[in-house]
Amino acid sequence: MTMKRIIPIVPLAILLVAACSTEAVYKTKDVNLNMEIRQVSAGFCEAYFRTDKDAYFYIAAEKVREGVDPFSIEKQFKTLSLDYAYKNYINWRYDHLLKGEPHIAEFSSHSLQYVEQDYFFNDLEPDTDYWVYGFVVDPKTNAPCGNLVLETIRTKATSEIEVHFEYRINGTWDYVYPLNSEGQLNFFLPWVGETADSLYLKDVLKVTTPGDYFIERLKTLQESGEANVFYGMYAHNNDGVGDGTSHTLFEDGHTYYTALASFDGPLIFRGPYKNYSIYKFKWTPGMDCTFGREDDTLGNW
User: Fold this and answer.
1) Is 276 exposed, middle or buried (0-12, 13-18, 19+ CB in 10 A)?
2) Does the pLDDT of residue 190 top 80, yes or no?
3) Could you write out the DSSP letters of every residue in 10-24?
4) Using only C-alpha atoms, what is the Rg of the chain?
5) Would you say 210 and 201 are in contact if contact means Cβ atoms under 8 Å apart?
6) Positive or negative: CA dihedral 245, 123, 44, 130
7) Which residues lie across from 149 on neighbouring strands?
8) Exposed/middle/buried for 252, CB within 10 Å: 0-12, 13-18, 19+?
9) Would you call 279 helix, strand, or coil by DSSP?
10) Which long-range contacts (CB under 8 A, 24 or more apart) does 292-301 make?
11) Residues linked to residue 255 through DSSP beta bridges, in sequence order
């Protein structure tokens, strides 16, 4: 039983940019980086960044540190941020080299942005102050070379985004559709999901109810910062191989529970902003059925 993951749909131009190396055209002098905070919720913040010239830049969101003014220690603040990013990059590169992978992305491709980015900072804590910031970087020296652009935000105490999840089983494939109040796909709200065999829950974990298991599971993921976060519609083949992010194998006659939840602050079980559902189904080859709000088990067997 593993967590499923979706890669957000992004324009081809962005994908091409993400694959660029330091051979891409870029500037390091007289570059202005603009930032716009587009939305702030309980567990995430969306920010849009753009440079006025072709350039690489670093972006991040971190908790406000009491007594620290980033602008008064701007050089130190930017250097410390890049050192943190480079440390994470080295650990990431080491793990991939250890696995024998021959082609490893450079720091600029892995950790920096290029020209333009609409970015979602996830795993934020509710009702908490954060710095959201960015600055231009020289990809050859990995040194900051632009002014710090920073804004302080405060996340909301709870999510105020209405969402419900439509869930479809078609053969070994399952499909998730996070829908807004108008029944349209919500492409920007982060969400998480997991499917578990009832035999695993009852005989191995011996849980009281599926809801007890999934609530604790999702809380653990939120606290760990290691959740696989999805956006928009997602499809997965539960044939034991899948897409490399989940190895769930649907077996004939087995009963399964699938939990789906907004990854946006505390779980909300009732009311207009309910963001959590658990669906139950007995799988058979060739089945084709869709679940909606009226099919929510509310965590019961």
Assistant:
1) buried
2) yes
3) --HHHHHHHT--TTS
4) 21
5) yes
6) negative
7) 134
8) exposed
9) strand
10) 292/164, 292/166, 292/167, 293/164, 297/210, 297/211, 297/257, 298/211, 298/269, 299/209, 299/210, 299/211, 299/212, 299/214, 299/215, 300/209, 300/210, 300/211, 301/198, 301/209, 301/210
11) 282
Q: Decide the pairing of beta strands 33-40 and 45-51.
A: antiparallel
CA distance 50 to 40: 19
Quick one: tokens of 69? Answer: 């003014």
Q: What is the DSSP track for 83-100?
A: HHHHHHHHHHHHHHHHTT
Summarize pLDDT for 55-97 with one digit per residue, the tens.
999 999 999 999 999 999 999 999 999 999 999 999 999 999 9
> Coil, strand, or helix at residue 236?
strand
Q: Please give the mean pLDDT across all residues of the chain.
A: 89
Q: What's the full length of the chain, in residues?
A: 301
